[in-house]
Specification:
- It is a multi-pass membrane protein.
- This is P-loop containing nucleoside triphosphate hydrolase protein.
- GO terms for molecular function: ABC-type transporter activity; ATP binding; ATP hydrolysis activity.
- InterPro entries: AAA+_ATPase (IPR003593), ABC1_TM_dom (IPR011527), ABC1_TM_sf (IPR036640), ABC_transporter-like_ATP-bd (IPR003439), ABC_transporter-like_CS (IPR017871), ABC_transporter_C-like (IPR050173), P-loop_NTPase (IPR027417).
- Among the domains are: 157 residues, no CATH class; 219 residues, P-loop containing nucleotide triphosphate hydrolases (Rossmann fold).
- It has a six-stranded mixed beta sheet with strand order 16-19-20-13-21-22, sandwiched between helices. The protein has a four-stranded mixed beta sheet with strand order 6-10-7-9, with helices on one face.
- With 1239 residues, it is an alpha/beta fold.
- It starts with a helix and ends with a helix.
- The protein is elongated, with a radius of gyration of 39 Å.
- The protein is 59% helix and 8% strand.
């Protein structure tokens, strides 16, 4: 019995004992953990029974037999008192080795006995893993024991030798059986999460885990099914669920981000590290067997036992399989587990931060001194584009590095072992090779620094581009209404050009880096062999040459990974800093608001919209409400009124703690998070300490109208109907085909402005090249090996069929997982965008927990296919690599069968190519699958491009430059449908508006008012009829020519991140005085005459519109709704079109300001045709004519005087229902008298 028979099992046994002791003493560790909610109940079979009693009995029985066997053998040897030395081997050592095996099997017997106790269920998984490790090691050593017993004679006593052989045979058979039983024993019963199967990787046998056979059923399902969907994918392991990861991650919020990642994932990283070290230590063992095999052939085979060649080949097979299984586990824990965990917890934490972040927060920037005031706004922490970039790019970069960080562990180990082997083979020549590598390192460091700098610049430009794209998508309707597409396209392409320049610079640095690293092994090989042969004068034998080349090839693979890992490390460090900066930014200060329900108001409070990290950055241009001392009476109605820009919204948002409190106190209740889970049977729904908010800017989710109204509350039909009636939504539901179950598009795009507000009130080529390259290399490999051993071609054909079959299984399932991974990302970003838009409403209702749970759910939905996609790669790699190891084994057997005509050189050539064969075919399939998956992205882009496009921008012949010269609009028999299969929205309407006429368009919500404006701008093409402007049918000209000649002031004010100047003059077309004049027209600035008579004090707020470089936050959030509408109005009036359409453009402006605006329009745009869609009748009461719509029909079109004079008219009824009939009638009579006096 030799060292190999007993030492490895003893080491494993001692390691098991130490780990179990540590686990026992740490059993009471109270680290933060969620209770696993998975059960064995699948909602179909209530009595699922699971037992491993039979297997446990078999394991225990074999352990007892093995202990008895080796105890008997030990006693026999001691009794013989053999102390002589035979063949240079100490028999006393043999007794010690036998005793060690007795210890190993006795320890296993004790563990097996404890494992059968019913009180230690939670330890059974651990015990089985430990026993499997011991049994597997004992099994591998039993094979060597078997050879030693029959080849090497330890004793000259026939009986002892016979007993040794019997013991070796029994040991091999029993070890094989117990290993097979242990490794195939399930670790637990099937688990379910609310009826959904949990991935078998959490409970299947160790064999199924290390070979990833647990996901084979998914592969088969994908092969026979047209396309997989989310319901076909098993649930993630509990520790990888977003909820679990999020709760673990938030425990250490006071620590650095890197430390938090380590603490939340340390157990995963330990498994990852163990697998990495194991694979690194085994990595060169096959090469060692290759060297011995070639030495065996190179020397006279008669000098060694005839079985030594078979031992070497079999050793290559076993060590290859062990190495590949270890590598598979390393990448499983790296790519499938750690990567998913990091992505999930970072995305969840970023979203959780978004729920608490302060609107209008500015972050300190390293380059602040170099920034101009106009670009200061780009530093906003709260920009949707920037946070989206953090979620989409930065978390992915950190996740990628979490896969590769162990390279810094296994590379040094592998390099050390490689250099040691090379030194043993080549002597001092390997030292020269090492010095050559060291000399090249500083050059790499220089390139690395340049790359890191380029990455910083790239991320800044990328943030700008993503922000720009996000704002364009948010304001796409306005961009099209103003015919700005070409100019915005130019702006986007300019930014993209800058990004591509930075990408190109980064690519150049990466290319240089890779070139250096790839050239290094070649240079090292040349130096090494030159010194070995020319300087040292040694002969380069086949065994030395092929073994050295194999080691160098493996070393080259190791060194090839290093540059990429270094680059990923740089990128990950940048991403960690960016995420950390956002996570450390300011939050709403809930604690500063006193939640005493007996008082609502302010005490010595000063508030403002924006907050800067440094107090001295609070500019004098900031609007500040100072020294507020207000108390609102409890249980009574309070009205906050004042002119536009006076601070009404700021005051209200300050009560909700959505602004920056500079000093003082705020008293206001805050809705608890449990409010969305009330008792459904309660009769009184007026709850203490709860808040409801109807924001100026409607917040609607991409969901049904009913779900938007209930907003997470239980559906109670009686109460729901009462709410619908109070909000006058019954008629809207009658118009909508699906009633209150109608799906609201993103941001409520399927609803009109009034409906939204009332609902809110209710609440591929590179992969192809690689693939072809690998196929060519694979064919060449087969030809080379077959030239050496002709039998190999048969084996290669058989294995190729198996490779193809496995490849087809993999490609189909992998493609589906990639598709689902891409598709399920969109809901995450959509939910995030909705949250940012409605963050004030969400916080006011105490719905942050509900939205957080929804985000965690969406993260899980996305992580499921991603987890499976990564695990599928492991499934393929393990099978291909094991088949490759078997193929190499077969090639070696064929060589041994043909030693009469094959020398060591040909044998080395054949085996070297055989070892590379499996990698080539695996990467062929992987590259093909990646190529196929990349086609999914192309397919999605093509689908997007195939969406019906609007009419051409320009159609020849173009209208005259002076068109429209009069502003006459004639609508003839106009029939409008939003889709051909839907009912008409406008029913064959006809009317004519004369040039320079002022026409008000009124009607109930959903009557078709906004549809007229969309038709006029050709957002919707008529199904019948036409619109003629100054004699030209607008359907015959390009949409750019049409929209550029019209002006619309939409009901939703859209502002872009920038300044007042950049929002007024988006493309720098006007002089500065024109911008100031436009602001004065809409009364955002006082007239020159008024300004001369104004007196100001130090306590007065400076008008922010006096400085055109005043920053505008994303969406204009640092301005009130009224100010935003006036700024958009000022922008539109700069255009000076002949036809102006106002679509409820003054809805958020007070009456006095609205009156001033209307007077200004009548005074300064007397030569223009004005169409005004109004929700307030006072806005259009003095217009020339009123167009009354109802359910898509024109029911009245006459002067206000004639309409109000007719008590049967719909307009008359609308005036009466407004509550302002007398005021409206007086205004009409006054206007009518003025008109008659004029004539």
């Amino acid at each position: 019995m030799s060292y190999f028979d007993a030492i490895p099992p003893t080491i494993v046994t001692l390691g098991s004992f130490l780990l179990l002791v540590q686990k026992y003493y740490n059993r009471n560790d109270v680290s933060i953990q969620l209770i696993n909610t998975y059960t064995t109940n699948n909602n179909k079979n209530q009595h699922v029974r699971f037992s491993t009693a039979k297997r446990d009995t078999i394991k225990l029985g074999i352990c007892i037999i093995q202990t008895s066997l080796f105890s008997f053998l030990l006693g026999w040897k001691i009794d013989k008192k053999i102390s002589k030395i035979i063949n240079g081997y100490s028999l006393s050592d043999d007794i010690i080795h036998t005793g060690l095996l007795v210890f190993c099997w006795f320890y296993s017997t004790v563990i097996a006995v404890i494992d059968k106790q019913p009180r230690i269920k939670e330890w059974r998984k651990t015990f089985n893993i430990h026993l499997t490790s011991i049994f597997s090691t004992a099994f591998l050593c039993s094979m060597w024991h078997l050879r030693s017993a029959f080849i090497t004679s330890i004793d000259d006593d026939v009986t002892t030798n016979r007993l040794e052989k019997i013991a070796a045979i029994c040991n091999f058979i029993l070890s094989s059986i117990v290993t097979a039983v242990a490794i195939t024993t399930p670790r637990g019963p099937p688990l379910f999460d609310n009826g959904r199967p949990v991935t078998p990787l959490t409970y299947s046998s160790i064999l199924d885990v290390i070979t990833f056979a647990a996901i084979t059923p998914l592969m088969k399902k994908a092969y026979y099914k047209v396309a997989l969907n989310d319901s076909d994918i098993d649930q993630l392991p509990f520790n990888l669920r977003a909820l679990t990861a999020y709760h673990k991650f938030k425990v250490w919020r006071s620590e650095s981000l890197l430390y938090r990642i380590w603490k939340a994932n340390n157990h995963i990283m330990i498994y990852q590290l163990v697998a990495t070290i194991s694979s690194a230590l085994i990595f060169y063992v096959p090469t060692l067997f290759l060297y011995n095999f070639l030495e065996f052939i190179q020397e006279n085979p008669l000098n060694k036992p005839s079985d030594w060649g078979y031992v070497c080949i079999f050793g290559m097979l076993i060590s290859n399989i062990l190495s590949l299984l270890s590598l598979g586990q390393q990448w499983y824990w790296s790519a499938s587990v750690f990567n998913v965990s990091v992505r999930g917890m970072l995305n969840a934490e970023l979203y959780a931060k978004s729920l608490k972040m302060l609107n209008g927060l500015y972050l300190k920037d390293e380059n602040k001194d170099n920034e101009s005031n106009s670009s200061k706004n780009n530093n906003l922490a709260a920009s949707v584009g920037k946070i989206t970039n953090l979620m989409a790019v930065d978390t992915n970069r950190i996740g990628q590095f979490s896969m590769w960080w162990t390279t810094f562990i296994d590379c040094p180990i592998q390099i050390t072992i490689a250099l040691y082997f090379l030194y043993q083979l080549l002597g001092i020549a390997s030292i020269y090779a090492f010095i050559t590598m060291i000399v090249i390192l500083p050059l790499n460091q220089l390139v690395s620094k340049s790359f890191a700098k380029s990455q910083n610049e790239l991320m800044k430009v990328r943030d700008h581009r993503v922000n720009l794209m996000n704002e364009i998508l948010q304001g796409i309707r306005m961009i099209k209404l103003f015919a700005w597409e070409k100019k915005w396209k130019t702006r986007i392409l300019d930014v993209r050009e800058n990004e591509l320049k930075e990408i190109f610079k980064a690519f150049i640095y990466v290319t240089w880096y890779n070139l250096i690293w790839l050239a290094t092994p070649v240079l090292v090989t040349i130096v090494m062999f030159y010194v070995f042969t020319k300087v040292q004068g040694n002969e380069l034998t086949p065994s030395i040459a092929f073994t050295s080349i194999t080691i160098l090839n493996e070393l080259r693979m190791v060194l090839t990974n290093l540059p990429e890992v270094f680059m990923q490390a740089y990128q990950a460090s940048i991403s960690i800093r960016r995420i950390e900066t956002f996570l450390d930014s300011g939050e709403i200060e809930i604690e500063s608001a006193k939640t005493d329900t007996s008082k609502i108001g302010f005490k010595n409070a000063s508030v403002t919209w924006n907050k800067y990290e440094e107090v001295d950055e609070l500019g004098s241009s900031e609007f500040i409400m100072k020294d507020l001392n207000i108390e609102f009476p409890i249980g009574k109605l309070s009205i906050i009124c004042g002119p536009t820009g006076s601070g009404k919204t700021l005051l209200l948002m300050s009560l909700l703690r959505e602004t920056n409190l500079i000093k003082g106190e705020i008293f206001f209740p805050r809705s608890p998070e449990y409010i969305l889970n009330p008792d459904p049977l309660m009769s009184n729904w007026i709850l203490d300490n709860c808040v409801a908010l109807v924001a100026q800017e409607s917040f609607l989710q991409n969901d049904s109208i009913r779900n938007n109204i209930t907003f997470g509350l239980p559906f109670q039909e009686e109460r729901y109907k009462a709410v619908i009636k109070a909000c006058a939504l019954q008629r809207d539901f009658e118009i909508l085909e699906d009633g209150d179950l109608t799906e609201i598009g993103e941001k409520g795009l399927t609803l009109s402005g009034g409906q939204k507000q009332r609902c809110s009130l209710a609440s591929f080529i590179g992969n192809l090249s690689s693939c072809l390259h690998n196929v060519i290399m694979m064919i060449g490999t087969i030809m080379v090996i077959s030239a050496v051993t002709k039998e190999f071609i048969i084996a290669s054909l058989i294995f190729s069929v198996a490779y193809v079959f496995l490849g087809l299984l993999f490609a189909k399932c992998s493609r589906d997982m990639k598709r689902l991974d891409s598709v399920t990302k969109s809901p995450i970003y959509s939910h995030f965008g909705e949250t940012i838009i409605g963050i004030s409403t969400i916080r006011a209702y105490g719905a942050t927990k509900k939205f957080m749970e929804e985000m965690l759910l969406r993260i899980d939905i996305n992580n499921r296919p991603f987890f499976m996609k990564c695990t599928l790669n492991r499934w393929l790699s393990v099978r291909y690599n094991i088949m490759g190891a078997i193929l190499t084994f077969i090639a070696g057997i064929f060589i041994l069968w043909n030693l009469d005509r094959i020398d060591a050189g040909l044998a080395g050539l054949s085996l070297s190519f055989a070892m590379a064969f499996s990698k080539q075919i695996m990467w062929s399939v992987r590259n093909y699958a990646e190529f196929e998956m990349s086609l999914n992205s192309i397919e999605r882009v093509c689908e997007f491009l195939e969406i019906s496009q609007e009419a051409a921008a320009i159609i020849e012949p173009r209208p005259p430059a002076s068109w429209p010269h009069n502003g006459n609009i004639k609508v003839e028999n106009l029939l409008i449908k939003y889709s051909q299969e839907l009912e008409p929205v406008l029913h064959h309407i006809s009317f004519e508006i004369f040039g320079q006429e002022k026409v008000g368009i009124v009607g109930r919500t959903g009557s078709g008012k906004s549809t007229i404006s969309l038709s006029l701008f050709r957002f919707i093409e008529p199904s019948d009829g036409k619109i003629i402007i100054d004699g030209i049918d607008i359907s015959t000209i390009g949409v750019e020519d049409l929209r550029s000649k019209l002006t619309i002031i939409p009901q939703d004010p859209i502002l872009f991140t920038g300044t007042i100047r950049s929002n007024l003059d988006v493309f720098s077309q006007y002089e500065e005085y024109e911008l100031y004049e436009s602001l004065r027209r809409v009364h955002l600035l006082p007239s020159i005459e008024d300004e001369q008579h104004l007196t100001t004090t130090l306590d007065d707020n400076i008008n922010v519109f006096k400085d055109l470089d005043t920053p505008i936050n994303e969406g204009g959030k640092n301005l009130s709704q009224g100010q935003r509408q006036l700024l958009c109005l000022a922008r539109a009036l700069l255009k000076k079109s002949k036809i102006i359409l106002m679509d409820e453009a003054t809805a958020s402006i007070d009456f006095a300001m609205d009156d001033k605006i209307q007077k200004m329009i009548r005074r300064e745009f007397v030569d223009c045709t004005i169409l005004c869609i109004a929700h307030r009748l006072r806005t259009v009461i003095d217009y020339d004519r009123i167009l009354v719509l109802d359910q898509g029909n024109v029911i009245e079109f006459d002067s206000p005087y004639n309409l109000i004079s007719n008590s049967n008219s719909s307009f008359y009824q609308m005036c009466q229902n407004s509550g302002e009939f007398d005021i409206l009638k007086a205004s009409i009579i006054k206007q009518n008298n003025n008109t008659h006096e004029f004539f």
